[in-house]
Amino acid sequence: MKTILKTALVAGLMLGTAAAQPAFAQATGAVTPGIAIANLDAVIVNANAYKTAETQRQTTYKAQIDQATSRGNQLNAQLKPLGDKFNADRQGGKVNQAALEQQAGTIQQLQESGQAELQRILAPVQLSRAYVQEQIDDKLDQAVKNAMAKKKVSLLLSPQAVLAVNNNAYNLNQDILTELNTLLPSASIVPPAGWEPRQVREQRAQQQGQQAPAAAAPAPAAAQPSGR
């Protein structure tokens, strides 16, 4: 079997985002001992905790989802005649450029304000997704380590690091998925009050760390009057 690897190989874990999920095939044997391939994004979306949370969220956050759907339909109904008129005026050639630009500006403003409104409505849903994702991320590293140890893998590559393989002998997806399902059978979909995603917490901590030295710096000493 010939396996062609890119020259830039990175030992350890490589997190990759694939355009399509690879087949979840169990590794059939160690062709080159110690090397395996895994798409961790595909592992996550196939995890029991992730799939169950996606189903539960449709019920728990039904009010927000229905509200966003209804409001989205209203916005589309409002925008469609404006878009149709703009296209007709542009093609007809009877409306000057300034009027067309004004129409386009109105449409763009409605689109942007509508998108912002929908994002506000769906904010609890997005926060729930982030909460579930963080719970999975917290267990994923251990799941990868467990799978690598059991399969005696010392080098794990993402699909982007591999140009071609001719069977699933190197695929470690299913092994990692099994470990992840064991470590995290299910996830909570409703975050605690005041919870924020890790990225937000880290940014806030960094900002506070940068502000702390400035706040702790001693004030310059007042100038002493001369003895004259």
Low-confidence stretches: 1-23, 25-30
Number of helices: 7
CATH architecture of the largest domain: 2-Layer Sandwich
- Beta percentage is under 5%
CA-atom Rg in angstroms: 27 Å
Helix-strand pattern: EEHHHHHEEHH
Main pleated sheet: 2 strands, antiparallel
The 3D shape can be described as extended
Order of neighbouring strands in the sheet with most strands: 1-4
Percent range of helical residues: 55-70%
Amino-to-carboxy terminus distance: 94 Å
CATH class descriptor name of the largest domain: Alpha Beta
* Domain count: 2
Summed over residues and divided by their number, the pLDDT gives a mean of: 84
Q: Tally of extended strands?
A: 4
Could you walk me through the main structural features you see in this protein, from its secondary elements to its overall organization?
The chain is mostly helical and 228 residues long. It folds into two domains: 4-16 and 27-50 and 126-214, Protein Binding, DinI Protein, Chain A; 62-123. It has seven helices and four strands. The chain has helices spanning 40-45, 48-60, 62-92, 97-121, 123-150, 173-183, 198-216, and strands at 4-5, 35-37, 155-157, 162-164. The protein has a two-stranded antiparallel sheet with strand order 1-4. Strands 2-3 form a two-stranded parallel sheet. Helix 2 (48-60) runs antiparallel to helix 5 (123-150), helix 3 (62-92) packs antiparallel against helix 4 and helix 5 (123-150) packs across helix 6 (173-183). The longest helix has 31 residues, at 62-92. It is extended, with a radius of gyration of 27 Å. 17% of the residues are buried.
